[in-house]
């Protein structure tokens, strides 16, 4: 997994030229960038295989039932795979020339980047809310009263309160950051 991420990072410097198939590159350059675009599919496939294998072992050996989280993760992976397949189709310079100014390229771009990011943000909302309020249930079951100015609590409850504070601030920060990124294109 680590080697595939490193190789994607290195090949990413070369692959950026596949956006320039339609500007009149010579044949040798097109073949080189075409090949590098196809080659980057191999470490990406290894990364996707690692994700799926990790999820399989999590489902097999885990005692928890977290199917609602896995739905978003599987949806993200399936969209990423569909975007990757369309990327392999577009890696051919001849096909890319004929499809360059069509919605196929727009669909490929949004399938890989936009929809996957939306699924990750929705998963963050679900996890953030659930972790915050489940910890409140645990603290309440341990007898912590509400509407007190000063509490004398033990170390066990204090641990859960700190987890709750950190998660609430993390969730709040991500919410404002997400809404801020939504407002930027409107301006």
UniProtKB/TrEMBL annotation:
GO biological process per UniProt: electron transport coupled proton transport; mitochondrial electron transport, cytochrome c to oxygen
Residue stretches spanning the membrane: 6-25, 37-57, 69-90, 125-144
Pfam families, A to Z: COX1 (PF00115)
Enzyme nomenclature, EC number: 1.9.3.1
Gene3D superfamilies named in the record: Cytochrome c oxidase-like, subunit I domain (1.20.210.10)
Record's keyword annotation contains Transport: no
PROSITE patterns, sorted: COX1 (PS50855)
GO molecular function (one): cytochrome-c oxidase activity
Annotated InterPro entries: Cyt_c_oxase-like_su1_dom, Cyt_c_oxase-like_su1_sf, Cyt_C_Oxase_1
Keywords: Membrane, Oxidoreductase, Transmembrane, Transmembrane helix
Annotated ranges, domain Cytochrome oxidase subunit I profile: 1-169
Protein name from the UniProt record: Cytochrome c oxidase, subunit I domain-containing protein
Species assigned in the record: Rozella allomycis (strain CSF55)
